[in-house]
Amino acid sequence: MPDTLRGIGVSPGLAAGPVARMSPPPSLPERRAVADPEREVAVAAGALRAAESRLRERAAAATGAARDVLDAQAMIAADPTLLDGVTARVKDGADAPHALRETFDEHRRTLEGLGGYLAERAADLDDIAHRAIAAALGVPMPGVPSPGHPFVLVADDLAPADTATLDPRSVLALVTERGGPTSHTAILARSLGLPAVVGCAGALDVADGETVTVDGTTGQVCAGVTEDEAARVRERAEAELARLAGGKGPGRTADGHPVDLMLNIGSAADLAGVDLTDVAGVGLFRTEFLFLDRHDAPDLEEQVAAYTEAFALFERGTIVVRTLDAGADKPLPFLGLPDEPNPALGVRGLRVARDRPEILATQLEAIAIAAERTAADVWVMAPMVSTRAEAGEFAARARDHGLATAGVMIEVPAAALRAARFLDVVDFLSIGTNDLSQYTLAADRQAGGLADLLDPWQPALLDLIGRCAAAGKASGRSVGVCGEAAADPLLAPVLAGLGITKLSMSPRALPAVRASLAEHTLADCERLAARALETDDAAEARAAVLTTT
Amino acid sequence: MSMRTVVIASRTGLHARPAALFVKAASEQGVPVRIRVGEGKAVPAASMLAVLSLGAGHGTEVTLEADGPGADDALDALAALLARDLDAEETSDA
């Protein structure tokens, strides 16, 4: 008789397979006296070698950017300056684990002190430190396990660093003991199209290798199932995938009301291998990738080449290009922006153009030239817009460069509240629900403990989305959603019911959203939207829609 | 002391993969090589942490230094490596 565990299903789908648990980071024991310093140095050196070799194994199994990151991490573990630092500390009386911890901390502080990109890399050092300390203590290394066969990953919770190299071909499903509907795990699972259950008490008690079944819709996890039962679940999972894949045609409700389904991409590479039949276009082309990790802004020619490459892949559809979304929260060295005490409320997005208008001018010119060279219908929009004047000025600049369709992101409540007046001066709106919820609920996106407030089902957020959509309807202009909310199949009919005409998401999320829309008429969608708006928090809104469906 | 000055050609600068390739090559030279940005402090080229800490981006001019026999050959090889766009080159699967 299998044991049934219950959690919150956050990413639909079925899976069955053996469990592999994530080991937690090691905790440092009390300091101990060192009798034999030479032996202690040898322990530390061996631990660094073990961390290096594990990272090399991971790199060999990874591809592309993840592989490069892991290779670089392995080289850090092999860095002779680390062993020098550890040796010096052991001579001063530290034991191997503490000598490692203190040496890594020193380098961490140095990188943090350099700011920008390097400060972000400082967190990577922690991963190497945890591995080396675990090896010195003789406990399992933390991180995503690689048992060598497909597995159901079970963890307390998953951090972005844990999942950067997660291979969707070897992970069958995600199950965490903690976390909520908007946790990193949930977002990641939806973007990878993996079934996921969070808040599942007792999941870590299931032994490694034991076969479980996971239902990402109901939140049910069954342990101790027989191979027959697992095989039946796999068959159902395949049938479900076939059903979603069989869903063809453009996005529309059961009664044929169109809702454009579009893709979020960061570069032309994101479209590789994606079936673009029935996809209306790119709803969010992030341009940051061109600007990261460099000391000077990319010049006109380089930008034209990159945009042309992306536009050429989508010659029969619309591509909505977002101009550079950087600032104190996503620092770029060449912008030379000062540190801000509250970067989320500081100089970011379009605000950067206040001091550096030439960066926006060059970018708009490059987009216009690339648009001219390809047949794609290129739209352009600005991030982080607060006032109608900002919106109007941006649209005027875009049109000066020959870009006919100019719009703005709605991420700030001030902009959402004045959406109707914005639509007098711009051609379309695209709602960035991740930032709009952060600013509406006054909850930092980085603060894990506030996940419930950042939930896209918060009725206040839905109110603002509805207000924007109504303004779009009245003016006959397009109002889309391109945040995390657009990838939630249960929320899609609610957004359509509020009057949203475009949903833009990662390619993996699209089939489920298409299937969900196709199951509801426009009148159903409107009824679901009304039910959601009558509630007082995100969990209630979700429950109201689930019970109505 | 031998020196070479070279401009970082890799698009992402001396980070991640380009840095890893450079540090690996530096540690395989027969002589210790140091690297600096402008008149900054020269750091061991075989140290990944030190090289990353230079924060050398695309287009940054760096100076390589080494002493003794073999210094010139080592510097020529490393300077040639930095002058290539290492990001544009495919990762070998070997």
TrEMBL record, chain A:
Domain Phosphotransferase system enzyme I N-terminal: 6-121
Compartment annotation: Cytoplasm
Domain PEP-utilising enzyme mobile stretches: 151-219
InterPro entries the UniProt entry points to: PEP-util_enz_mobile_dom, PEP-utilizing_PTS_enzyme, PEP_util_AS, PEP_util_C, PEP_util_CS, Phosphohistidine_dom_sf, PTS_EI, PTS_EI-like
Binding site for Mg(2+): E411, D435
PEP-utilising enzyme C-terminal domain: residues covered: 251-519
NCBIfam families registered for this protein in UniProt: PTS_I_fam
The protein, known as: Phosphoenolpyruvate-protein phosphotransferase
Native species: Actinoallomurus iriomotensis
Lineage: Bacteria, Bacillati, Actinomycetota, Actinomycetes, Streptosporangiales
Gene field: ptsI
Automatic annotation (TrEMBL), chain B:
Keyword Oxidoreductase: no
Primary localization: cytoplasm
Domain HPr residue range list: 1-89
Range of residues in the leader sequence: none
Protein localization: Cytoplasm
One of the protein's GO biological processes: phosphoenolpyruvate-dependent sugar phosphotransferase system
Keywords, ordered alphabetically: Cytoplasm, Phosphotransferase system
Gene3D superfamilies, sorted: HPr-like
A GO CC term assigned to this protein in UniProt: cytoplasm
Its biological purpose: General (non sugar-specific) component of the phosphoenolpyruvate-dependent sugar phosphotransferase system (sugar PTS). This major carbohydrate active-transport system catalyzes the phosphorylation of incoming sugar substrates concomitantly with their translocation across the cell membrane. The phosphoryl group from phosphoenolpyruvate (PEP) is transferred to the phosphoryl carrier protein HPr by enzyme I. Phospho-HPr then transfers it to the PTS EIIA domain.
PANTHER family: PHOSPHOCARRIER PROTEIN HPR (PTHR33705), PHOSPHOCARRIER PROTEIN NPR (PTHR33705:SF2)
Name recorded for this polypeptide: Phosphocarrier protein HPr
Species for this entry: Actinoallomurus iriomotensis
Lineage of the organism: Bacteria, Bacillati, Actinomycetota, Actinomycetes, Streptosporangiales
